[in-house]
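Throughout our pipeline, every protein is held as a single compact record rather than as scattered files. Nothing more is needed to write down the fold, since each code stands for a local backbone conformation. For reference, a complete record is included directly beneath this paragraph.
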Amino acid sequence: MDVSKIDAMLAQLRAGAAVASGKPVSGATTPGVRETGEGGRVDFSAVLKHSLDQVNNSQQNAAKLMQDFEMGAPGANLTEAMISMQKANISLQYTLQVRNKLVMAYQDIMNMPV
């Protein structure tokens, strides 16, 4: 595994942790997501779509690597395919947990007395 890939993954994890805690991240941006003109706010729907696209891409990449290995394609690597499958699984589990938290927050808001 390339060191730059590890650094990129760590940067994504740190940015995700900072966003979750509400702290601003200096110099960290999500690729493909633009800030709106209103005080540097980020469009929630754009962030959500970008995240779902990333999960989908990782799932498709893992499936392709596994299929290449199963078909005996030259250069197909079992280790790389398995690591890709695990990364895709972790990203899917993370997405499901975020969805569960959003549903819980929505239910809490709906159950608040007016």
